Amino acid sequence: MLANPSTSTLHYRPSSTHNPPFIHTNHRCKLSLSPNCPRFANFAKSKFSSLSLLLSNRKLERLFTVVKAFEETSVVNDGPQSLPQPVSVKIPVGDRHILVETGHIGRQASGFVTVTDGETIIYTSVCLDDVPSEPSDFYPLSVNYQERFSAAGRTSGGFFKREGKLKDHEVLTCRLIDRPLRPTMLKGFYHETQILSWVLSYDGLHSPDSLAVTAAGIAVALSEVPNTEVIAGVRVGLIDSKFIVNPTTKEMEESQLDLLLAGTDSAIFMIEGYCNFLPEEKLLEAVQIGQDAVRAICNEVNALVKKCGKPKMLDAIKLPPPELYKHVEEISGDELVKVLQIRSKVPRRKALALLEEKVLSILTEKGYVSKDENFGNPETVADLLEVEEEDEEVVVDGEVDEGDVHIKPIGRKSAPLLFSDVDVKLVFKEVTSKFLRRRIVEGGKRSDGRTPDGIRPIDSRCGLLPRAHGSALFTRGETQPKTAVLIFFDDRSCGTIAGCSLAEDVSILSLAVVTLGDKQMAQRVDNLVDEEEFKRFYLQYSFPPSCVGEVGRIGAPSRREIGHGMLAERALEPILPSEDDFPYTVRVESTITESNGSSRSEAIKSAIVVVVQLEYRPDL
């Protein structure tokens, strides 16, 4: 309890150990009591008795009135709470079953599940913040997946024995989980959601990555997160012309295909994998077999959700008012059409920003947008609801008048934002996308004037860096990646070579570093299996903020950079010569120097150019 001498008000702040469901932890609650409360004498003798000097008799009476009501309610809420009951179900997948269990561990999370395949066990939890974040055009979802060495009965061989930063393959699994789940989340839900997934046990045979995708999909389906459909994931292999769903690691050693896909009972949302030059018909057949397996899992999970799933927080979804779309379209209209016809990316982006400010300014002048920066903030709304009246009626004899109780139930749903500046910006972005799509579908033209099937001009240059073993500059339209190949020799001493910078119509800055050494320069991979793994070829992709003319973070590679690098690496690895014919460790760096669209394909193309150059090196 806190006293405010200036207002003669006593406030109660709910503690973390006692938080009744009708009190929101982020808001103050005014309390009023009657002096006839049975605990008045004890309270007067307590260390809080000095507070009576700050309060009038009238307010002291109100204080004790509501504390009594609060204590009575607390007794009810402190009683035994019903926890989720353990439920388990076996789901057939391929030639075996997976075991799905919920209600055993992690019961304070919104959704929690353990999925077992053989002796591989994945535990996944889903939690969401009580307070919604600022409205934005993306869903506030974060995914973390971690493989603990204890799952395989091992301890890390490094200096630090505790798991810390995620490894590259763990980051890739996080992206596998995120990609199919994000499209199922409903728009307008801004409570930050976190999915945590751990490998608790690993038997070395049953891969945990596809199992983690399924576990995350089940946990979200059981939680309060408002999503549309259940997600599941499977891996498909091809051995001796026979497709196998969720093959073991031993079977994958002989497989010509490694295809991981995820989706719902009616559609595929994500496909990732690589193969050894399979025909398109075989790949489509594998997708169909994977879809059938995903459908079977989703049907079983839907039955589980009906049995023990939590109600979805549909009342927390907050979308911009429909009337706002009409106002934004009327104001931007013809001017937006002209802006979308600007061919160059940077001028078009600046023109759109100016038009957005113009729309916001006009709506503000017309009174449609609040000028208060805190408008729509949940705490601000709560303060507006707390209206202190000095002349309220005194409550006596411990009777609680509902009109005098200032404890206001505050649920997870925030107060609606009506024509806030954030809403205007979100609506303007949606209207812009609508106009751009209409231009492409009806007019057959993109913003740069190309047809839907038109290709931007392509140009490539080789041998730009004199001290690198191979280099190339690949240009498609306004997208420029520069790639350098770094090769580690097994018969020379270690050394370092610095690269140089390039300049053209638009500034291009690149740094290449070549280290010469033996096979020890191969990338060591630390995994759950107690076997050393080395990569003689690896591709590292970089996307600096300068390539889009922005200022941003520089440091460890982002998850996006790791994912794009692995995509290009898998595309190039099958075309490399064998280690006997080419006994070198190969490192490919692909740096995007300009970006005006997707840059992944350009990274692959430029990397192919530099790898092919190695064939024409007489010294190799």
UniProtKB/TrEMBL annotation:
GO cellular component, one term: chloroplast stroma
Pfam families given in the database record: RNase_PH (PF01138), RNase_PH_C (PF03725)
Highest taxon, organism lineage: Eukaryota
Swiss-Prot/TrEMBL keywords: Exonuclease, Hydrolase, Nuclease, Nucleotidyltransferase, RNA-binding, rRNA processing, Transferase, tRNA processing
SUPFAM superfamilies the record matches: Ribonuclease PH domain 2-like (SSF55666), Ribosomal protein S5 domain 2-like (SSF54211)
Cross-referenced InterPro entries: ExoRNase_PH_dom1 (IPR001247), ExoRNase_PH_dom2 (IPR015847), ExoRNase_PH_dom2_sf (IPR036345), PNPase (IPR012162), PNPase/RNase_PH_dom_sf (IPR027408), Ribosomal_Su5_D2-typ_SF (IPR020568)
All residue ranges annotated as the Exoribonuclease phosphorolytic domain in the record: 96-226, 230-292, 512-608
EC number: 2.7.7.8
Molecular function GO terms recorded: 3'-5'-RNA exonuclease activity; polyribonucleotide nucleotidyltransferase activity; RNA binding
Gene Ontology BP, a term: tRNA processing
Gene3D superfamilies in UniProt: GHMP Kinase, N-terminal domain
Family: Belongs to the polyribonucleotide nucleotidyltransferase family.
Name the UniProt record assigns to this protein: polyribonucleotide nucleotidyltransferase
Record organism: Dovyalis caffra
